[in-house]
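User: Can you predict the 3D structure for this chain?
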Amino acid sequence: MQDTLRIVVDDLRGPQIAAFLEAHLEQMRATSPPESKHALDLDGLRRPEVVFWTLLDGDEVVGCAALKALDATHAEVKSMRTHPERRRQGYGALLLRHVVEQARSRGFTRLSLETGSMPFFAPARALYAAHGFVPCPPFADYVPDPNSVFMTTVLE
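Assistant: Here is the predicted structure, written as C-alpha cells:
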C-alpha cells in the first residue's frame, strides 16, 4: 500500500464522496432486491449516531466505512466499500481494522453488520470472517431475509 493513504472523518459534503456513495448505492440496487437493500444514503450517513470515514490515496477516494451506534454497547458497520479498481489490495481490511479499533475506543463491546448472501458479496463475507465476525441472527431493526447475512463479533 502506498504512503499517501489516510483515513479521515468525512462530513459527506464533498462531491467526490457523494459520487463514490452513489456508485455504491447503484451497485447495491443492481445486486440486491429493493426490500433487501440496507445501504444508507447521504442523509442516513449524516445522522448523529453515525461516524463516516473516507480512505484517501492522495486526493482520490478509494474506500469508505461507517460506524453506527445502535445502543451504548452495540454498533454496526455500515457503508464498507472499496473502489472496484482497488479491490484485493488490502484497503477493505485496513478500513475494517480502523472501524473495529474505533468501535473499541468508543466503548462498544459488540460490533455487527449486514451484508448480502449473493455470490457478489462472498469476498466481503470472507473479509469479515477473517476478522473474527461470525454469523448471527438479525439484530436491531433487521428481520430474517434470504438475501442477507448477519454477522457479529465481540470486542475485547
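Helices lie at 15-31, 42-45, 91-105, 122-130. The chain has one domain: 5-154.
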